[in-house]
Every structure is written in structure tokens, then in C-alpha cells.
């Protein structure tokens, strides 16, 4: 691959909208180019990386018996109506009508389409299990696309779907695919970890994410320092802290002028933060949910949404707070809340498990500039239900081993696997007959791996101040051959031909450009090995050789350079 013959539009400056390292460097290095918000062209170097990731994914999935298909990107709305997702998915689903006014959508995921295939052709338990996958383009109309390939609207994804005669068979296969995903990322040269996760809009009984560890990752991961427990903070649990209740006393109202935050009120009332009851109101489908947590905790909105089985929860506006509590924002509390409010709907009160049996607590009094002291759960207020609502934090005791402490690290979700159960097969009537001709609903799993995300995650995990540091297995080329002197063009051309004959992928910078420009571009693009042919290069026994990540230059013969690359490729 000659630099002069391909399209590699390197830039000196990152685009203004680029916020994270991978977005900046992939654009600057000429790997991708934005077409519209959250939609990108993959240019020649970027596509080479994409194809290498895809090849590793195919190899590992085919090895465990999965079969590749290719499904349509435009899906009839009637299939989504069958599964019940047409009215629930939200605005991320790009909907359209054809010339006959029939509903369609651009596929964000393909559970309905694949289930429709299987229900037409699987009749017997002898036809199971099956695992079908595709590598295809998806579209989700994200409200705020950002971070380049990390959260785009259009993206390349491997999505797989497995079909089983029993939950036990799904459990076994789920572990096989989990291990295959881990091998994929190891082969891509990336450090990753499997963590428990929320099922989100896909649904199902349980799920796990595969995350690439990176300080710049947008996901927070909680992991135990004493056992293998790890989970996305949206899902993570910790041991319920014991509430150190104060002495029970009568309820007392205290004037707290203009004091709204937990810190301000706790200091004024001379009570510890954990003895405060933080009260937050959320709008939900059909009403308002009031969430109660300790004053030293934060509400995990994903847990809250799951606890009340809501389609959505969003923090209530000031007007809703006034209508429900008769007070300004900052003075809400659990005492005397109505069961419903005209125009708003039912009021549900959900308290974190840590507040069960609390006494001697403090909270807002549902009256502007007033707080209560001496609250007791059961005596002064009642809740609709208790649930784990807390966002875990570093130092919390592990819920799994109950000995270790949780640590919070950053990561990038690159894969997500789900045990769907019968979430799609039941409403879509995907069934099979057992050995006794009795009909059963097929049990399903679904598995997704972001191809473009993996490319971006590789950059987030592997870069320096000069540019990208590609892991060899997914690098756009193995060697970056730099012609630093036009006087040596014949030698450069000969070396290029030799490397190609040896099966080594080469990006040959044969441009009529200054050496400094070529060196800067080479460091930016980040191909693992650099080879320079310059004025002082007398023969192929004295080539300037650099391992990009280590940054150490040395003289090597062409024969030794070839041996170094081939040895690295064997590993």
C-alpha cells in the first residue's frame, strides 16, 4: 500500500467537536471522517482495522459452531409490533413509511428478524440449538451522539442470536460465547474484563458486558479487590450499610431558611449526613416515583427504573415538585406525601434497603424552609416498597464475598451478552416440539460486539502524545516504510517489494514530502514498526528501525527486520 496511491488525509489539529482521544486521533490520522452528527465514513486505513477485527470475530465465532447470516437493515414495523417493542423503544428507533404508508424501521438490533426466521424453519428439538450471527450496520438515533465511534448513530456491530430447547442449554452456551468474546479481545491485543450489566432496552433475565479497560472510558466499573465480582455501576451492588439510628424522639420541625443541600442541612442540624433522608422526585410513565436514600448515597436511576418496572424515570421539574410536596425544590421529604395528584397521577414511594426500620432521621418537611428531625420509618412515614437504589462507591463492601472492598475503574463497553429467555420467542410464537410432540417456547440468548467501538477502544487504551499505538493484530499495516530521501527511491521500492513478497503488510510513504512531515504522520498513524530509508542508508544491512510503542531506534538489516515482524506475528 503506497501512501501516494491511497487516501490518508492526516490533519495537524483535531476537529473542534472531538472530545476524547480516539475521536481526535482517528480523525487526525485519516482513519474516519464525519458525514453528519454520529455518522462516519471509514477511510482506507480505518477500514483495514475494521476488517481485521471482523476477521478475528468470525474466526472465534465460527470455531464454536456459530453460523453467519446477513439480515436486512430496514425492518417491517409489524415484526416489532409482534414483540411489543414498536411502542416502547423510544425515539432512538428511526421509523419510516414506504410509498404504501406501511411502517418500517432502520434496525438498531435484530431480535425480531432472526426470531421470525427461526420460527419458520425450526420445528423439533432435533433442530436445536442454533446460533446465527451477522456483522452489519446498525442505526440508533441517539439524542446526543458524541465521542466519535464510541457513541455514534450509525455503527458496525456483530450481533448474534442463539436458540435453545432449555434454559440449562442456554446457560452452557452463554459461557461458551462469553469465553469466545474474551478470546476475541485478547487476540485484538486489548486488556478486557467481563462485568455484570443492566439489560436495558433489549430485555431478558441477565446480561454481562465485556469492557476494555481505559482511563478515558465512559463506563464506570465496580470490582471487588478480594474476589472476581465486577459490574457496571448501573448494575453493581454492595452490602447494605447498617443505619446508625439516633435515639427515637418525637417528630420536630426546624426552620432551615434557604438551606437545601444535604451538606448544608446536616451541618445546620448537627446530624451526620448518613442520618439524613435524601428525597428525590422522578417522573415516570403514569405518575411520579419518590426515591428515598441515605444522605450520603446517590440514587441509581437504572435500579430505580427496574424496581418500579417503569418505561422511563426522569428527574422531576420544579413545578412537579411543588405540586406534589407543596414546597420548593430542596425541601422534599417522605412525611405526608399524597397518594396521587390530579394531572400527574399516582405517587409511589420507594426507599433504599438501608432505610428499613430507620429512626431518629432528618429530612425535608414538604414545606419551604422547613426540615424534620426525629423521623421513624413506619411511625412517621410509610413506603410503597423497599429496593436496592444506591449507586455503589469506592470502598463499599462487596455483596458477593462480603469481605473485599469495591474499587471503581473506567472502561469502554465493547461487547454485551444477554440471556433473553422467552422475551421475544413467546410473543412471536417461536416454538418447537419435544420428543413427546409437546410444544414448548424456544429459549433465546443475544450477543453483541461493537466493531467500530473496538477500533476506538484500541486507541483509547494504546496511544501517546504523538499519536496511536496499534496492537499488531489489528494495525492497518505491520510496517511503516518511510522514504526520507528521494535519492534512495530505488532502494525504497525494492525493500517495499521484498516485504510484500514475505507476506508483511506495508504502508510505504513514497510521497514527495519533507521527511519531518512523513515522520510526524508515521507517529500519528501508529503502525507498530517503522523502517526508514534515508540519505545515510548505504545498504539494506543498515536500515533505521523503530518499534513505535517503545520509541527506541536502532540499525537493523532487512533480514533481521523481517524476522522480527514474523516472530511477533506468530504470537
Number of domains: 3
The best one-word shape is globular
State the helical fraction. 10-25%
* Average pLDDT rating: 94
Q: Helical region count?
A: 12
Radius of gyration: 29 Å
Q: Which structural class do you get from the secondary structure elements? A: alpha+beta
CATH architectural group of the largest domain: 2-Layer Sandwich
Number of strands: 30
Biggest beta sheet summary: 9 strands, mixed
Q: What is the third-level CATH name, the topology of the largest domain?
A: BirA Bifunctional Protein, domain 2
What features would you describe in this structure?
This protein has 571 residues and is an alpha+beta fold. It folds into three domains: 3-237 and 408-459, Bira Bifunctional Protein, Domain 2 (BirA Bifunctional Protein, domain 2, 2-Layer Sandwich); 252-387, YbaK/aminoacyl-tRNA synthetase-associated domain (YbaK protein); 477-570, Rossmann fold. It is 24% helix and 29% strand. The chain contains twelve helices and 30 strands. Strand 29 and strand 30 (552-556) form a beta hairpin. Helix 1 crosses helix 9 (451-461), helix 2 (44-63) packs across helix 5 (167-187) and helix 2 packs across helix 9. The protein starts with 20 loop residues before the first helix and ends with a helix.
Highlighted features:
571 residues; alpha+beta; BirA Bifunctional Protein, domain 2; Rossmann fold; 3 domains; 9-stranded mixed beta sheet; globular
Amino acid at each position: 500500500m503506497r501512501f501516494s496511491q491511497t487516501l490518508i488525509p492526516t490533519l495537524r489539529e483535531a476537529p473542534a467537536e472531538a472530545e476524547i482521544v480516539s475521536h481526535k486521533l482517528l480523525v487526525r490520522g485519516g482513519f474516519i471522517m464525519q458525514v453528519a452528527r454520529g455518522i462516519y465514513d471509514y477511510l482506507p486505513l480505518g477500514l483495514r482495522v475494521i476488517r481485521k477485527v471482523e476477521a478475528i470475530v468470525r474466526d472465534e465465532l465460527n470455531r464454536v459452531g456459530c453460523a453467519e447470516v446477513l439480515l436486512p437493515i430496514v425492518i417491517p414495523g409489524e415484526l416489532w409490533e409482534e414483540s411489543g417493542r414498536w411502542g416502547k423503544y423510544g425515539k432512538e428507533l428511526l421509523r419510516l413509511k414506504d410509498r404504501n404508508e406501511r411502517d418500517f424501521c432502520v434496525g438498531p438490533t435484530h431480535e425480531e428478524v432472526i426470531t421470525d426466521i427461526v420460527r419458520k424453519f425450526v420445528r423439533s428439538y432435533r433442530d436445536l440449538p442454533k446460533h446465527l450471527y451477522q456483522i452489519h450496520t446498525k442505526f440508533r438515533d441517539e439524542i446526543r451522539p458524541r465521542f466519535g465511534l464510541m457513541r455514534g448513530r450509525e455503527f458496525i456491530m456483530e450481533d448474534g442470536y442463539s436458540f435453545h430447547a432449555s434454559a440449562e442449554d442456554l446457560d452452557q452456551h452463554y459461557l461458551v460465547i462469553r469465553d469466545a468474546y474474551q478470546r476475541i479481545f485478547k487476540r485484538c491485543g486489548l486488556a478486557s474484563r467481563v462485568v455484570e450489566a443492566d439489560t436495558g432496552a433489549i430485555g431478558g433475565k441477565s446480561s454481562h458486558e465485556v469492557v476494555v479497560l481505559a482511563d478515558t472510558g465512559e463506563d464506570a466499573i465496580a470490582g471487588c479487590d478480594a474476589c472476581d465480582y465486577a459490574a457496571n455501576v448501573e448494575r453493581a451492588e454492595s452490602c447494605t450499610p447498617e443505619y446508625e439510628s439516633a435515639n427515637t424522639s418525637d417528630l420536630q420541625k426546624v426552620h432551615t431558611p434557604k438551606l437545601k443541600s444535604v451538606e448544608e442541612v446536616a451541618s445546620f442540624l448537627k446530624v451526620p449526613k448518613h442520618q439524613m433522608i435524601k428525597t428525590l422526585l422522578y417522573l415516570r410513565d403514569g405518575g411520579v416515583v419518590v426515591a428515598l436514600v441515605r444522605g450520603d448515597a446517590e440514587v441509581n436511576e437504572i435500579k430505580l427504573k427496574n424496581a418500579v418496572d417503569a418505561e422511563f424515570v426522569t428527574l422531576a421539574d420544579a413545578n412537579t415538585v411543588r405540586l406534589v410536596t407543596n414546597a420548593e425544590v430542596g425541601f422534599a421529604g417522605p412525611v405526608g406525601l399524597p397518594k396521587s395528584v390530579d394531572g400527574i397521577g399516582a405517587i409511589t414511594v420507594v426507599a433504599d434497603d438501608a432505610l428499613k426500620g430507620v429512626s431518629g432521621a432528618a429530612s425535608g418537611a414538604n414545606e419551604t424552609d422547613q426540615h424534620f428531625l426525629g423521623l421513624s420509618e413506619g411511625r412517621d412515614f410509610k413506603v410503597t416498597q423497599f429496593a436496592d437504589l444506591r449507586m455503589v462507591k469506592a470502598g463499599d463492601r462487596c455483596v458477593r464475598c462480603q469481605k473485599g472492598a469495591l474499587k471503581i475503574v473506567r472502561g469502554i463497553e465493547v461487547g454485551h451478552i444477554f440471556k433473553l429467555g422467552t422475551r421475544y420467542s413467546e410473543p412471536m410464537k417461536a416454538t418447537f416440539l419435544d420428543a413427546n410432540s409437546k410444544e414448548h417456547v424456544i429459549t433465546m440468548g443475544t450477543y453483541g460486539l461493537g466493531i467500530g467501538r473496538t477500533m476506538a477502544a484500541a486507541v483509547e487504551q494504546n496511544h501517546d502524545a504523538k499519536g496511536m499505538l496499534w496492537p499488531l493484530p489489528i494495525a492497518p499495516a505491520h510496517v511503516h516504510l518511510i522514504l526520507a530521501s528521494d535519492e534512495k527511491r530505488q532502494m525504497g521500492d525494492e525493500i517495499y517489494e521484498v516485504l510484500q513478497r514475505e507476506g508483511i503488510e506495508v504502508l510505504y510513504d513514497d510521497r514527495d514530502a519533507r521527511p519531518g512531515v512523513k515522520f510526524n504522520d508515521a507517529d500519528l498513524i501508529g503502525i507498530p514498526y517503522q523502517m526508514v530509508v534515508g540519505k545515510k542508508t548505504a545498504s539494506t544491512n543498515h536500515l533505521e528501525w523503530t518499534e513505535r510503542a517503545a520509541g527506541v531506534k536502532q540499525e537493523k538489516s532487512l533480514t533481521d527486520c523481517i524476522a522480527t515482524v514474523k516472530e511477533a506475528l506468530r504470537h
